[in-house]
Amino acid sequence: GRLYSKEDPLTILSSDTLKETLLNSSTAWLVQFYSSWCGHCIQYSTTWKALAGDIKDWEQAIRIGVLDCADEKNFDICKEFGIHFYPTFRYFKARSSTFDIGKAYKGPDRELQTVRQLMVNFLQNHTPEVWPPQCPPLEPSRSAEILSLVGQKADHYTAVIIEEEDSYIGREVMLDLMMYGGMTVKRTLNLDKAFLDRLGVSSVPAVYLLYPNGSHVLMDVKKSQRFFFSSYLKLLPGVHRKRGSSAQRVVVSGSKGQKPAEIWKDFDKSKVYMVDMESGLHYLLRVELASHQTLTGDELKTFKDFVTVVAKLFPGRQSVVKLLETLLEWLVSLPLEKIPYDAILDLVNNKMRIAGMFLSEQLQWVGCQGSQSELRGYPCSLWTLFHTLTVQAALRPDALANTGLEEDPLAVLQTMRRYIRTFFGCRECGEHFEEMAKESLQQVKTLDEAILWLWRKHNQVNNRLAGTLSEDPHSPKSQWPTPDLCPACHEEQKGLHVWNEERVLDFLKQHYGASNISPQYAMGYAGLEPLAGQSGKADERRRPPDQTDAPVLRLSPAVHAEVRADTQPKPKPSMTFLVLGFSSLDMSLCVLLYTLSCVFLMVVFFFFRMRSKRWKLKHSRLYV
Ligand SMILES: Cc1cc2nc3c(=O)[nH]c(=O)nc-3n(C[C@H](O)[C@H](O)[C@H](O)COP(=O)(O)OP(=O)(O)OC[C@H]3O[C@@H](n4cnc5c(N)ncnc54)[C@H](O)[C@@H]3O)c2cc1C
Questions:
Q1: Atom 45, ligand 1: which residue's CA is nearest?
Q2: Which residue in 182, 371, 424, 506 could disulfide with 420, CB within 3.0 to 4.6 Å?
Q3: Is the model's pTM score more than 0.90?
Q4: 49 pLDDT above the threshold of 60
């Protein structure tokens, strides 16, 4: 295979596309001409992909491409560009109106940080005439200019990076934020002592933040590193990625049945919300799967395994777990090869009125709520559910005992993979996920590795989707957990951001652990009222905290009506008897048996009575 795929955050060029891409391009380019048989190119491909991912947000200023000179169809173009050795790196300026073979720009090494800094230098070498139109000016501002902004009101934040002359952090953060609205980043040098004293800056690099309302403060960032600065600025309320800012335009519509939402619900992003997972399960069981009339063969097996994993591992409320367990028992006890989905729906809707078993029919998103109806919601709840299941599998390794899945560290991931491939409504997502699974799932050997695998792959998806239309501008796709959630998860090595995976694992176990799942807003079993001890009160008509003019969310009754259309009326809670856990089904069976025995005894009684009467009559006639 080739070294790069369309999944990588870079552009794969060929003889057909190279010239037209470079000519009069609105961005500068750095192209690696490589050969897929060259060992060094193979070794270097990981660094190149990491670099492309690292500077993905710069793509309206400078982009990264690759061209494989070992591909027969590229022989001539590589000759024309004078490529003799591999890999060869060429820089191409933006808005170039004539053909040129690019500039070889060399640094002391090919380390990611060095190349990134060379890219910044190359950008700065553009004259104003050919400056990439979307690229912000990268020159430092004078201290007087910055001071003139302090205390002024504006319609955006201004972040001022104060740094040393040879530092790149300011320019890198400016480029990191160039696709974000609501924020302007400037840089200034630490040359003016009076200026630094005025802002209270004692060490550099530092970020001074000017708020839209005129207030200003020296930002307290945990680590003075590029990744921390950029992440903090991107996460400020009101700062959002400009929609459609990426070349990619993949849209995953949230889910059928999602309509505008009604009320913005305040939530804490360090928590997982039970109501998101319950809504996800409701949608999955009553809508997504219900489009399959009958389950048979592989579909049925996938469904059974899914129910097994969820019933055993979901750290949910008792009423939901009971429903899942009952569904599992029922599936296991039925040796059928084919099950009509209506029969499953009857159980999910608790037609038999079994006591204490209930899954709300409300679609309600809290941690997964989007600023528009088609954003977030169901796919977000699926990720949340599966992360929770991988964590539960590691925390409770015996939970899957006697299910046939107990020995397998991949049980949850394989079940997820098969569910996504077989049933998930977004086919393209399923195909992408399948590709990722094929590539590396077999390397997972322990339950902890399974947690980390899913985290890594989710981040890969986040990276691919950042800036596409399926990104909610109020919940930008970032590499997660962000430094505000887990500062210890982030480190920097040679200027490159790296994860501390040990810390990430601890964080994931805590974040998706049962004690971090908030029951807030979850609907009660009997009357859909908030659960005891919870306020459950949505902050009426509030907008997302960072929104100034965004549409108000509405959870329309139509959503519920549509989803409920096929479903049964809400189950009436049944009684339990003698505190022995008899359900109404048990009681109905008892009553039925009791009635049948009575009828049988009465029939026997009347039969013998008639017989004895007839016998008496016969004998009395004889005597007469
Ligand atoms: C298996 C799968 C594949 C998908 N593939 C595609 C696709 O190819 N194209 C497409 O357009 N959409 C795809 N989607 C949908 C997409 O990934 C998002 O779910 C959707 O855009 C909603 O995004 P979100 O902002 O709500 O955050 P999501 O990405 O859905 O994340 C939900 C929550 O999980 C947490 N989280 C984020 N990252 C991580 C992580 N790395 N580890 C653990 N927790 C994390 C955060 O709290 C976040 O709010 C896929 C969804 C799934 C379930």
A1: 480
A2: 424
A3: no
A4: yes
Q: How many Cα atoms are found within 13 Å in the side-chain-facing hemisphere of 235? A: 16
In this structure, the answer to whether residues 113 and 166 fall within a common structural domain is no
| 325 has a pLDDT exceeding 60 | yes
Q: For the chain, how many structural domains are there in total?
A: 4
- Please state which of the ranges 130-139, 307-316, 610-619 shows the lowest mean pLDDT: 610-619
For ligand 1, is residue 387 a contact (CB within 6 Å)?
A: yes
Q: CB of 429 closer than 6 A to ligand 1?
A: yes
**Residue with the two structure tokens 């129910």:** 307
Structural domain containing residue 318: 272-471+511-518
225/194 same-domain check: yes
Same domain, 80 and 194: no
Between CA 553 and CA 260 the distance in angstroms is: 6
135 is catalytic: no
Cα separation of 614 and 604, whole Å? 15
- Reported as half-sphere exposure (CB side, CA atoms, 13 A), residue 609 has a value of 6
287 touches ligand 1 (CB under 6 Å): no
Reduce the DSSP state of residue 544 to 3 states and report it. coil
- Index of the ligand 1 atom closest to the CA of residue 472: 25
Position 570 in a domain:
no
Cβ 436 under 6 angstroms from ligand 1: no
62 within ligand 1 shell (Cβ under 6 A)? no
Model confidence pLDDT, tens digit, residues 244-279: 555 433 333 333 334 444 578 899 999 999 999 999
Task: State the distance from the centre of ligand 1 to the C-alpha of 385, rounded, in angstroms.
Answer: 11
Angle, helix 112-124 to helix 39-54, in steps of 10 degrees: 60
Distance CA 622, CA 607 (A): 23
pLDDT in tens, 335-346: 788 999 999 999
Atom number in ligand 1 closest to CA 456: 41
The residue whose CB lies within 8 Å of the most ligand 1 atoms, and thus the one to mutate among 249, 251, 461, 468, is 461
Has 38 been annotated as catalytic?
A: yes
Question: From atom 40 of ligand 1, which residue's Cα is the shortest distance away?
Answer: 455
* ipTM higher than threshold 0.95: yes
Segments of 422-506 assigned E as strands: 490-493, 496-499
Q: Choose the weakest-confidence range: 51-55, 250-254, 480-484.
A: 250-254
Task: Tell me, using a 6 A CB cutoff, whether residue 379 lines ligand 1.
Answer: yes
What confidence tens digit (pLDDT) does each residue in 169-214 have? 999 999 999 999 999 999 999 999 999 999 999 999 999 999 999 9
Q: Which atom of ligand 1 is nearest to the CA of 382?
A: 53
